[in-house]
Amino acid sequence: MFVLEARYLAHKVPVVTKTPSKLRDFSMSDLARTKVSYFGYEFEVPWSDIDESATKVYQKRVVISFKSGLRLMFASGPPKEFVSTVLSSGKLDSRLFQQYYGDALQSDYDLTRLMLESTPDRLTLLTPKKDAVGEAMMLAIKAIAIPEDSGLFSIKTAEFKGFQYGEPQNKPKKIIVDLFADDGDLEFMFFEHDPSPATTVAQVDRPLTVSQAEINAVIQTTRKIRPKHDRLGAS
Predict the structure, then answer these.
(1) Which of 140, 171, 179, 217 is the most exposed place for a label (fewest CB within 10 A)?
(2) Helix 2-12 vs helix 129-145: crossing angle, to nearest 10
């Protein structure tokens, strides 16, 4: 039953067959950068046309608008937020989940990595039932969690490690980057809409035109703002 369900899921949601690969482009845009800070973090954006009037700040999320039509959503959350969401969703048996994946529940990064590395071909008729149940649960989460099938990559910065969903050369409508650290989770989403007055609902989303170098510039400059005495190394 688990093998058949996994094969059906692979047919219905092909992205579950993919696992993260390393980014091929590590370059960083040399455009002039603007430093911004929200929710205790700061990063640089390689675009100088921020539209302050259209930028919206919420409790733990901001949507930075640019006059070109580009939008950058940045959100911060507490550590283990994904773990808590999975365990409290009611769609999975949390007791069994903890039994199978106790170690992965130590951090959102560990659980996300385990989820993204799960694939239908790891389920065969010879897979022990216990492992089959666990793998099936991971695949169910993966089918829901991955935003779209346009690339899946592992990334690392000086302070974070995480994953990028989408690749600019595939012209997706959005690219999402999730970053994880011991003291919190971050999410970036790059997307665009037509800024002209004649924009219709059907035109709101358009293929993303940012480059990987521009995305790298944002991600690689992201850091947590620490108190001054921490940065100076108080004795």
Answers:
(1) 171
(2) 20
Angle 208-210-216 from CA coordinates, rounded to 5°:
130
Q: Please write down the HEC assignment for all residues of 110-178.
A: HHHHHHHHCCHHHCCCCCCHHHHHHHHHHHHHHHHHCCCCCCEEEEECCCCEEEEECCHHHCCCEEEEE
Pairing, β 152-156 against β 21-22: parallel
Q: What is the pTM of this model?
A: 0.83
80: left (phi over 0), alpha (psi -120 to 50) or beta: left
Which tens digit of pLDDT belongs to each residue from 86-134? 777 656 666 767 777 777 778 899 999 988 998 888 777 777 777 777 7
Tell which residue, 140, 152, 145, has the closest CA to residue 8.
140
The pair phi, psi for residue 134, each rounded to 5°, is -65, -45
CA 148/CA 163 separation, integer angstroms: 13
Q: What is the pLDDT of residues 165-219, one digit of tens each?
A: 999 988 888 999 999 999 999 999 999 876 555 544 444 567 788 999 999 999 9
Amino acid at the residue 44: E
Domain residue spans in the chain? 2-18+81-145, 22-78+149-226
- Give me the CATH topology for the region 22-78+149-226: Protein Transport Mog1p; Chain A (3.40.1000)
Does an H or E element contain 109, and which? helix 108-117
Please name which of 213, 172, 219, 209 lies closest in space to residue 66, comparing C-alpha atoms. Answer: 209
